[in-house]
Amino acid sequence: MKKLTLGMTVLLLLAILTACTSSGKNEGQSSNSAGTDSPAKAEAEFKKLGDEPVTLTFFSTSGTFPDVEFQTLIADPIKKKYPNVTIERIKPAASTTNEEVLSTHVPDIIYSSSSSHQRIIRTGAYEDLRELIKRHNFDVSRIKPILWDYIKDITKDTGGEIYAIPFNANQHVLYYNKDIFDKFGVEYPTDKQLTWDQVLDIAAKLTRTENGIHYIGLSVDNLTGLAKGLGLPYVDRKTGKAALDTPEWRRIFELNKRIFEIPGYVTPDGTWNWGRDQFMKDQVIAMRVTWLANMVGPLEELRQQGVEFNWDIAPAPNFEDQLGKTREAQIHSLSVNSQSKHKDEAFQIIAEILSDEGQRILSRNGRVPAIINPELEKEYGLDIPVLQGKSVQNVFIGEPLQEHYIHPYELEITPRLTEAAEDLAVNGLDVNSAIRKATDAINKDVETLKTTLGTP
User: Which residues form the signal peptide (predicted)?
Assistant: First the structure.
């Protein structure tokens, strides 16, 4: 009896081992042939949006994104389509840094402009989206190449991660105040793209003082804004040194110097830097060349507060040999937080916003779509009151450039370009001296940043 029991025991052990080996081979074959690519398996790995109540948090790290746009473009459309889904915006105090917010909160969805991508990468808050893109069968070929290529270029020299999905193309236009043109009997800018020489001629006629009010003919965001017309980097990607000592940058410095030299542009008290508030609120700037998103949403908020004036849109100007091109199209993007407990739901929200319908809402409310669909551009601005009656199709005259590679230190050294503009405007420096001074300052900053932030 003992022999029989021992024999049965051996046979039983052999059977178990054989079964385990067979099972291991089948699992391996199944993993290799299907894995996460299997629709059934992928379906089981994530919850479909709207199946259960979920609240997702949203945080904007940079770029102009007023509440009226957050509600109109994201929160309200998602709630309408998915009643069980709520998107809540995290609104920290103005003095709070992105790093502070991301260390104390876990926003599920992160909204960024290209100016903040590198800083957020350093925090580790961005999820690599490649697996989510695959799992949710997200078609990246629908995204405009100049936007998608920029996203890929960010990590070209590292691991090839995909940290963001373009939300919209933030293009440039020339805004102009018709009331100021009418006041001084000057013809409006045309629907045809003008050269910088033509725009400066107009600006000179409109920079003047009348009844104690000082009017400025032109605002261009100075060196940083003008450089976007030629797609110029601030720091050389390979050497890590300042990239300002080039013929292209010299051309930008010379143009900015010409603007500052318009009689009356720099006031007797030394005011030289003119921007959005002077155009929108004070209404003393005749023309302003800047981002769409920097103005359209705030102008709509201002309209809702009962403040309106007579303005319109013309194509962004450029150098004569660059006509047909405008400025860089800045990337506004959406990302998933690497620490989120709702990564799949957050990505599905992004995919919904990138759908034809989601992008139609963007276009009709004053944002240029991120996807390839010319029909949507025909609907641009139709649903936002502040753009009614405006020459909105001038937004699409001229080809936007792909944004230059934003170096990991670019945001930190950008103040040096503001200082350089001030040197041109009020400190009496010539172009060559201003370039040399800014170059030296940037190179010193880079060495310091290598120590404080680490070598990129």
Answer: 1-24
